[in-house]
Write a structure and sequence with these properties.
Oligomer: heterodimer
Number of strands of chain B: 8
CATH superfamily of the largest domain in chain A: Alpha/Beta hydrolase fold, catalytic domain
Strand content of chain A: 15-25%
Order of helices and strands of chain B: HEHEHEHEHEHHEEHE
CATH class of chain B: Alpha Beta
Radius of gyration of chain B: 16 Å
Radius of gyration of chain A: 20 Å
Number of helices of chain A: 12
CATH topology of the largest domain in chain A: Rossmann fold
Number of strands of chain A: 14
Structural class of chain B: alpha/beta
Distance between the termini of chain B: 30 Å
Shape of chain A: globular
Largest sheet of chain B: 8 strands, mixed
CATH architecture of the largest domain in chain A: 3-Layer(aba) Sandwich
Number of domains of chain A: 2
Strand order of the largest sheet of chain A: 1-4-8-5-11-12-13-14
Number of domains of chain B: 1
Structural class of chain A: alpha/beta
Chain lengths: ~375, ~200
């Protein structure tokens, strides 16, 4: 299968100065759209994906042949109703679903970038994606929406482009990574780096893949996306296709088997170097520091309407970190609503079938759209 | 709409900024938006009620007045409304001071514990009063700091805030509370409504 056939790409000609100091131009940005843009071009929603997401938000992902990562929330009559809205989502730069990333060839050396790819930031990702507005001739988006790292991009976007969205919906996110967040990401990166096949990032040239390392990274991260209660209810101490412990190191427990499976399917669709680059971007994200310690200043120039959503069992980006954004917005009299949704599904709640969340998101968007 | 809400809407000037603390399902905020073109915000502790407010297109944050008023700067609203919840706070003094810090004015309504039915209930039955507006038993009531209209007036002198306007609601009739009729209003009004300032 030729992956490229299914990927729409916009080549960004305009030079983009990255936070690391390097400038890139003529680079590809892969994107997908759902629904149709209306005459006034005022029904567009830019969705930002999370760490391991891509531009294929809903429907069947043509590359993985699985459901899009936000199929619960995006589609006809769903929370982000594609009968009504024009949904755009781009693969982040640094990613591995067609956008400019470490698995691309460096035109200067004709070698795959690997870890010679410039370190990118959330700011760089957003500054690359804003080009999509020009491409579709959209002056102002109806909304910017995203969860987790997608939420960070939402916050960065409205801070960089205060007049470019009417509504702003950051979900289960934070204005900067905590030490714990950085620690978990570092664990993942070290798992990859300690896989011999990683070869200091040159595995694609060597025709090897650090599958072991990447799958361990995914396993560790996956635990952080779930809640203790959720895990306990789903798996408890149940054994995997056996009646008794085997006194060995096979996957005796269902949870072990589940994590191994999650790790193994992940390596089929994700690039290890992209994992390093994107987790780095998340760790570097600090909107508070960007505005000299005052988060409110990030939002001073915008008149957009904010709606912030967190989840009770999310311990990766807990409610308090989401609420800090609400507080910063209230401190400048911004239009901000906030709700914490009750769910046992942990950080992953925003991706799953959590009816209260899906209903609330829909209500906010549809009501704001009809009153715009 | 409840008579209480109508009175509050009448007290609020057009095109002002209003924070409704404990905004419930947003009924008051809706009519403030519609009738007075008000820029209305709400705080509500119940997740379900916040979700109802969102479905009505209202700007509401889930939160608790005792913890979450802090985040608003001084004088960020023209009015802050606190409907029938003062008695549920651990420290009503701090709450009133916060309301008057965040808002230039505050509107506070209180279920009157001095009402004759409440008094009679305790006098005759000898148990904690249960009435239509105070339906809970002593052990499960959220109302830990009940007060009477007279208590509230007294409180204004103790913690030093001005009562700009005080109204009594008796059988859906609205009347002014004055120094001379305070005894009667405290006996017959179900609800006291106060517009206060620093």
């Amino acid at each position: 299968m030729n992956i490229k056939e299914n990927i729409k790409t916009l080549v960004i000609k305009k030079p983009l100065k990255l936070d690391c100091g390097k400038t890139i131009n003529n680079f590809p940005l892969a994107y997908e759209t759902y629904g149709s843009l209306n005459k006034n071009k005022d029904n567009a929603i830019l969705v930002f994906h999370a760490l391991t997401g891509d531009q294929f938000v809903t429907g069947i992902n043509p590359v993985t042949k699985k459901d899009g990562w936000w199929s619960y929330a995006v589609g006809p009559n769903k929370s982000i109703d594609t009968n009504k809205y024009f949904v755009i989502c781009a693969n982040v730069i640094g990613g591995c679903m067609g956008s400019f990333g470490p698995s691309h060839k460096n035109p200067d050396t004709n070698k795959i970038y690997g870890t010679d790819f410039p370190v990118i930031t959330i700011n760089d990702m957003v500054n690359a994606q804003v080009n999509l507005l020009d491409h579709f001739e959209i002056k102002k988006l109806f909304s910017v929406v995203g969860g987790s790292m997608g939420g960070m991009q939402v916050l960065q976007f409205i801070s960089n482009y205060p007049d470019k969205a009417n509504t702003v919906v950051p979900i289960a996110c934070t204005s900067n990574h905590s030490a714990q967040n950085i620690a978990f990401n570092e664990l993942g990166r070290q798992a990859i780096a300690s896989d011999h096949n990683w070869s200091h990032g040159k595995y694609l040239s060597n025709n090897t893949l650090p599958d072991k390392g990447l799958s361990v990274a995914r396993m560790a991260a996956h635990i952080t996306y779930l809640s203790k209660k959720g895990l306990q209810e789903k798996f408890g101490r149940k054994l995997q296709e056996r009646d008794a412990l085997k006194f060995g190191f096979d996957a005796d427990f269902q949870i072990e088997s589940y994590l191994r499976y999650q790790g193994s399917v992940f390596v089929d669709r994700f690039d290890a170097n992209s994992y390093l680059y994107i987790t780095r971007a998340m760790d570097y994200f600090d909107l508070v520091k960007q505005f000299d310690g005052n988060l409110s200043n990030a939002f001073k120039k915008t008149k957009a309407k904010f709606f912030i959503i967190s989840f009770t069992s999310d311990w990766l980006y807990p409610t308090q970190e989401n609420k800090d954004i609400v507080i910063a917005l209230n401190a400048i009299g911004a239009d901000v609503g906030f709700v914490e949704i009750k769910s046992d599904k942990g950080h992953d709640s925003f991706l799953l079938d959590v009816p209260d969340f899906l209903k609330t998101l829909k209500n906010f968007l549809d009501k704001s759209y009809s009153e715009r | 709409m409840k008579t209480e809400y109508k009175i509050i809407v009448d007290l609020i000037e057009e095109k002002t900024r209003v924070l409704d603390v404990g905004c419930d399902d947003g009924t008051l905020m809706e009519s403030l938006k519609k009738d007075k073109n008000v820029d209305a915000r709400g705080i509500e502790i119940s997740k379900d009620k916040v979700q109802i407010c969102v479905s009505k297109g209202l700007t509401v944050i889930e939160g608790n007045a005792e913890l979450d008023l802090k985040q608003f700067p001084n004088d960020s609203f023209d009015y802050v409304v606190l409907g029938q919840t003062l008695q549920a706070f651990i420290n009503p003094e701090i709450v009133i001071k916060e309301l008057l810090r965040v808002g230039k004015k505050a509107i506070i309504t209180i279920p009157n514990f001095g009402h004759w039915k409440v008094r009679l209930n305790l006098l005759i039955k000898g148990t904690m009063p249960i009435t239509e507006s105070l339906p809970n038993d002593w052990y499960n009531t959220p109302n830990i700091h009940m007060c009477t209209i007279k208590d509230f007036v007294k409180f204004s002198k103790i913690i030093n805030f001005k009562i700009f306007k005080s109204l009594a609601l008796t059988n859906k009739n609205i009347s002014n509370i004055t120094n001379s009729n305070l005894f009667y209003k405290n006996l017959f009004a179900e609800l006291g409504i106060f517009l206060i300032e620093k």
